[in-house]
Amino acid sequence: MSHGVVTVQEMHCVCSWFANWGPTQREEFFRDLLEKAVGVTADSLLANLDSLSVQDKAPSIFKCQMKLFGQWFEGWTEDDRNELLQRLEDIDANFVARFYDEVARINQQRH
Questions:
Q1: Torsion-angle region of 80 (φ positive above 0: left; ψ -120 to 50: alpha; else: beta)
Q2: Closest Cα to residue 88, out of 110, 69, 62?
Q3: Residue 17 pLDDT greater than 90, yes or no
Q4: Are 29 and 35 in contact (CB under 8 A)?
Q5: Are 95 and 26 in contact (CB under 8 A)?
Q6: pTM, 2 dp
Q7: Residue 64, Cβ neighbours under 10 Å: how many?
């Protein structure tokens, strides 16, 4: 499948960020990615409530990266999204395996 040049560049950015994120940032990305894949869950609502706060300072670089990821992800096709997961798997196979396991668990609970 051919991906647009811009989409490929966006994926490259996300993978570069992911490779440099620490465990806490990867966990937040995991929850965000999971929410995008399966919709809102009770756990994601609680996590979002915990992250709400009034801030007098500018957002962190990580928050800006997450915002950009969200905007890009919305514009990607299903094939693009699957390609991102394949690229992330090259960086951290356990992260992607855990993601697929969690998607399967949530989908099983819904049926």
A1: alpha
A2: 69
A3: yes
A4: no
A5: yes
A6: 0.82
A7: 11
